[in-house]
Amino acid sequence: MRSSLLLAPLLAGLAAAAYDKESSHHEEGPHIMTPQEVYDEKVARYYILSGGSVFAVILVWSAVIRMSAHIRRLTSLSNDTQRYFITAHSFWAWMKRHVMYAPLLWKRHNREYRLSTALNMGTLPTRFHTVLLLMVVGSNAYLCLHKLPFSSPEKEFLPSIRKRTGTMATVNLIPLVLMAGRNNPLIKLLDVSFDTWNLLHRWLGRIVVLESLAHTICWMVGKVHTDGWTDLRESLGSSNSILTGIVATVCVVVISLHSVSVLRHAFYETFLHFHIVLVIVFLAFTWIHLVGYSQLKYLLGAILLWAFERAWRIVTIVYRNFLRGNTTATIEALPGEAMRVTLRVARPWTFRPGQHLYLYIPSVGWWTSHPFSVAWSDTEESDTDEKGLVMTKQDVLGLQHPTMSLVIRRRTGMTNKLYEKATENGATSVTLSAMVEGPYGAEHVLDSYGSVVLFAAGVGISHHVSYVRHLVAGFADGTVATRRLTLVWVIQSPEHLEWIRPWMTSILSMNRRREVLRIMLFITRPRNTKEIHSPSTTVQMFPGKPDIGTILDGEIEKQVGAMGVMVCGTGSLSDEIRFACRQRQTPTHVDFIEECFTW
């Protein structure tokens, strides 16, 4: 964010000055469009319209799914068997097994390909994502070549493909910017996760790079072919439009090179700031390059989207953290190099399960933020004033402080610095000034499922705790369809139970909890067998790793209504559960939901 704030005014001034300078070179009037350029505009409009149509179809599909889930919940509130919703529809079962949930190859999807512990090559998309990517790539390739004069001489063909690829590259900037934003409105509107938009953003970025290169190379080849290398060099020095176009192309190529998975994962914070700087430079020089051309309106749309999203984030941070006091974070060091972070937000929001926020700790890194799932939301109360006198109920209500809590595992970068702060000088906790940005996330509503199975590994439990609390309370109140709720948590040591102990104590004391909730704890690295003991029949501990297939088969035998299976954990665990759910699509209704954050 700091990079954009510092560079934006400078480059905006550069663009304005260049605009005035370039305008002086067009005294003869605005650029007159050729018939080919007019057709290119039609192609651009067709591309935008077709993209809008795809979004409309997904919107209708999402609305139908939401309505079906709502109806299922309402009809199941007073039905303890929910037999009608157990059976799977044969077509959708086939689609989920072979397309929607299926990885591109074999079983591996969320587990990353690594050359070493430091070299992360990324993940493979699902088959459904692959279909979407092929549609995007195919439509761009088709429209870049549609009705071009292939049989014409080189001096006519090269300008035609140069203009078409330049137009398509500029038009693609609008969805490219939209898909990258944290505040992308399509996340909630279409119920499509940020991960999916991020995947599309990366591939659309590669398409823009290829189209920009084709645009530039076609100009260079045509120029050399007709006028020679000498005139090409002179054009770079005499034409603002050409020089800025070359600089913009170089910027977008550098963006693609430094965004490869290996560099992105190894140096994420450096990548992020460098990425923002390069994007600003690219947009500024592309603006100068397009002055006087009709494509400028598409670039303007992309710039407005980018600027609005950034401005909205700043407004959100100020609104949440400064207008009613300050936000603080209490970081408590826990066993297993984890931290429980309790946030007292100046202006909190009504928390819903599945939401996450971005956390800033200025004393650790002023411009560094990371996403974390909100595990718990509560209210702190004080029943005495500073002098120790008992307060009235009205006074107590006035001093209630809503809090939100996170569980964070110590890694590198920001989380390592946080852990060091919490354990500095032998301490176990520290309170720091903080800022939060949120809420974010496509919230998965589980209220319509008669049976819910939640799998978590390590700190992935932070995503599930809020769902457990919500569904147990909903069962007691009769507001959810859930009649069976199973939580499976895989941890390395019993010490890790301390991460969520206060929250789990609260859940275990909830009304009618024993009737709906079962907890299975798997300890993969116990020091001795004495550590493994089950407190009750509803809270059980086991050594080793879980047998996913056996657990799901046991749940299916006792299934009530439709079943929702959600996972938040390691890539290997997610892939194993994905495979098990695919194999069990018939005859019962099983939905698979994966919560992850890829970058």
UniProtKB/TrEMBL annotation:
Organism: Trichophyton verrucosum (strain HKI 0517)
Signal peptide (UniProt feature, chain positions): 1-17
Swiss-Prot/TrEMBL keywords: Cell membrane, Electron transport, Ion transport, Membrane, Oxidoreductase, Signal, Transmembrane, Transmembrane helix, Transport
Residue span, FAD-binding FR-type domain: 310-446
CDD domains: NOX_Duox_like_FAD_NADP
A biological process from GO: iron ion transport
Classification via PANTHER family: FERRIC/CUPRIC REDUCTASE TRANSMEMBRANE COMPONENT, REDUCTASE, PUTATIVE (AFU_ORTHOLOGUE AFUA_3G10820)-RELATED
Membrane topology according to the record: Multi-pass membrane protein
PROSITE patterns associated with the record: FAD_FR
Pfam family, one: NAD_binding_6
One GO cellular component term noted in the UniProt record for this chain: plasma membrane
Location of the protein in the cell: Cell membrane
A GO molecular-function annotation: ferric-chelate reductase (NADPH) activity
UniProt protein name: ferric-chelate reductase (NADPH)
Transmembrane segments: 44-64, 203-221, 242-260, 272-291
Family assignment from sequence similarity: Belongs to the ferric reductase (FRE) family.
Enzyme Commission number(s) of this protein: 1.16.1.9
Top-level taxon of origin: Eukaryota
InterPro entries linked: FAD-bd_8, FAD-bd_FR_type, Fe3_Rdtase_TM_dom, Fe_red_NAD-bd_6, Ferric/Cupric_Reductase, FNR_nucleotide-bd, Riboflavin_synthase-like_b-brl
Catalytic activity: 2 a Fe(II)-siderophore + NADP(+) + H(+) = 2 a Fe(III)-siderophore + NADPH
